[in-house]
Fold these 3 entries.
Entry 1:
Amino acid sequence: MNSIAKANTFSASTVDQNDLYDREFHEWLKSNPGGVFSQYSVQDTVNKLNKGGKHHTLGGNLYGAEWSTGGISFFKRLRRLADIPRYARICDYGCGSLRIGIHFIKQQNSGCYYGLDVTRDFIEQGVEFAGDVVQNRCAKLGTIGNDLESAVKFDADLLFAANIVCHIHPEEAETFYANIKKIVHRPNGIILLHVVEHPFMVRYQKSGWAWPLDFYDKKMRPFRRVGTDFMKPFHKAGYFMNGYVLVYERPAKSVSILKNLIHLVKDKYREQKYHKKLRLQARNKD
Ligand SMILES: C[S@@+](CC[C@H](N)C(=O)[O-])C[C@H]1O[C@@H](n2cnc3c(N)ncnc32)[C@H](O)[C@@H]1O
């Protein structure tokens, strides 16, 4: 068995860990009947942030980065994938504390940004840092529970979901994909999905799932994948996984202006180089 296959073997400890995650969630359900995993997981994070805890993407106390610059590289990556005109209406689905959103708010014309999240708790932490900009640029902010219909009326040209898809519990997948496709209802509308890929579905942390690329493609139908931006591979809980941003387009009979502006990244060379490096590292560990 080669080292990558070995690392992907389902280990007993991973199974035990998954049981533990579910036990905690089911315990939570007893006092929150009818609740869903995202509410449980978000509440857990809100409690940690309220105690002054650090987070990679949420709140103002980020690991290794200032809030104002923490989301810039992701923002640039998304802009590289779709050369977005200032008048395009952008929906940031799972906007969290506006770490990436703030750069779109500044870049787009007034009123052209809509940030949605499960909870306002995260959003308010971003507003604390950037309240003036949010107000001056007439950025719309809301929760998925209360403001989905308003986001649909917003008539987005493009929606992005950064660091979200890997946190979607399988039981919430239907709702997630239905919502994002409902928001981008216009022909040629674009959805940029940041995903974690693995040849078969794995749960690699309490709130972390990876799926094969064709799973995402099926869920996104009738949208078509028109771009695949490889980010980087990583190794966690015994699995080798890859990060991607997948570019999807809602089909249309005519060609749109946005379509002409999409610059697809065909960086196969970079992808192959990363995989080679990963294989070498794995071989050296044996
Ligand atoms: C890791 S944070 C990323 C925040 C932001 N996109 C960023 O990259 O800075 C994950 C976000 O996903 C949101 N989230 C979790 N489950 C979700 C769901 N089912 N639908 C939409 N958003 C969800 C959380 O509330 C949280 O804000």
Entry 2:
Amino acid sequence: MGLLEGKVAIVTGAGSGVGKEHSFLLASEGASVIINDLGDSAEQTASEIRDLGGIAVSHSGNVAEWNTGEELVEKAKNEFGDLHILINNAGILRDAMSFSMTEKEFDEVISVHLKGHFVCARAAAVYWRNQSKEGKTTARRMVHTTSESGLFGGPAQSNYASAKGGILTLSLTLGRELSKYGVTTNVVAPRARTGLTDYIQSMAAPEDKGAFDVYDPANVSPFVVWLCTEDAQEINGQAFIVGGSGVWWMRSWSHINHIKLDNQRWTIDEINARKGELFSGEDTGVPAFAAPKFG
Ligand SMILES: NC(=O)c1ccc[n+]([C@@H]2O[C@H](COP(=O)([O-])OP(=O)(O)OC[C@H]3O[C@@H](n4cnc5c(N)ncnc54)[C@H](O)[C@@H]3O)[C@@H](O)[C@H]2O)c1
């Protein structure tokens, strides 16, 4: 018996790449999966899952549109009678340095990633809150998709890094709002060779067919699917980098130093006089890109 027998999952952007792999693993663990993507690729993934004996239906639609979230939740209810898991994954890149980026490039990326995550999360939250109020309490899961660009900032990605950083705080906010309804919400930054990254030479498949393929997108899915199981009930509001053989638990924006007056407003001169205390011995430049190394 699979770990997710009887569970119903939505995966956005599951027509290819990481989302497609998440869908295959969810289905192989017994979940019924609603596969969302633009165009025909959603149905392609769903039919491949059905050919393997899994349960899947497709939904073709843009996650940046408000009604897509509602349609996906309705589809889960109508086809499979409930919804337990939402994996927000759909994404695009429109890279350019900030000084060259167009309004269209900025808006498209914010829409698909940040709004697209919120649209689906909101629709699921409405349904799960109502279910909880009716006394139907069962484990519910959201897993969102960020990026190392969102964790650390990334040159030529002010649109993407902002959206992916927003997704990290969106997840924290959802965690604070929805845990009382049995929902956990976590974020994963994948490392994988997909349509988004296949231009990166270092991520190419190994020539030796027997060697471990570090950047196979399927390497990301076991941790994402584990987050959806009963065993991960206590994991909430967390962020991870996942790829190859590694899982890194991430945390950021912690308090470093503190200066304070006694119930009065600072003057600029006073701040300047005590800046050494606030920044004592710390590096005040742009923080290093502290991504963990494979191996
Ligand atoms: N591959 C990596 O190393 C990597 C690194 C960091 C983050 N990510 C993130 O992982 C997620 C999956 O990307 P991937 O690498 O599998 O790339 P991918 O291009 O293979 O998959 C993204 C999918 O999202 C779909 N999509 C795009 N816009 C959509 C929309 N508006 N509505 C519905 N579907 C839409 C695409 O059609 C595509 O099938 C993305 O959020 C991406 O930013 C990937």
Entry 3:
Amino acid sequence: MIPIGLMFHHFRDGGRHLAGQGAISADQFDALLDAYADRILCAREWRERRLRGDLTSGEICLTFDDGLLCQYDVALPVLQARGLTAFWFPYTGPLAGAPDRLEIYRYFRTLCFPDVDAFYAAFDGFWNGTRWRRRILKGLSDFNPGNYLSEYPFYSEGDRKFRFIRDRILGREAFAEVMDSLIDTYPFDPAQARRNLWMDRRQLRALHEDGHIVGLHSHTHPTRITDQPFDEQKWEIDTNAEWLEKTTGDAPDCIAYPCGDYDGRLLAYLDARGIRIGFQSRLNDASDPMEVPRLDHVLAMDSLNETSIAKGP
Ligand SMILES: [Zn+2]
């Protein structure tokens, strides 16, 4: 059995941390850990044994992407009660005062709309009245929801269309222009959102000191890092590494690729920087320690409701 990671993003608590798409509660998290209990290792043990090629029975590790405060507030106490440690992969833009807009947008969507489809409807209605209308309509003529992001089976057709417009038609800057104008039409405070969204340096340092592993996830979290000029890719990695080392006192030696995106050139650069373990964002049968497959917690939750959980991938 190939060793994999379980991948977590959003948690909810009925208060400060909202119940957005895919967000799970402490109780749901606890039940998921129960289901995998005999296979979960602490992060440092998992890392050492993975590097030795010594994980032969499908032992898994727990991973938390994006440095989200909801993970620290909701998931960490559950881990502590079980004596478990995990991998944490924060992007560091928010620490430097440059928060990721995508996360702010997600928060906006959760706070201001009853569900994600209501947001998609508002988004579609809004861009129709912007200068990007023709470009989007033209781009959508090439969109086939059956082919786009088909490796992520849990995305709805609306999810796929939204991501196609965001990543393939508009790109980062134009998408931000559309979203920021949309947000301006709602009573929403991005600064308040920022304070609720990300861990600070003190919290990241505490994780490291408690035996967790804090690794790379880029500085600004590009959705397709390998589309960027290589100098910018290196800057993403180097800046992220500097912030983490400044925060924990140790140079990181693991990475979770932002949005699961990497290629041979990026791998060679990471290797030269001493990065030893890399995590993908999906399951496959890759066996290299720089391409560790991960099971998204959304899929893990689904299989929890079926009977196949003990089998794993
Ligand atoms: Zn991420």
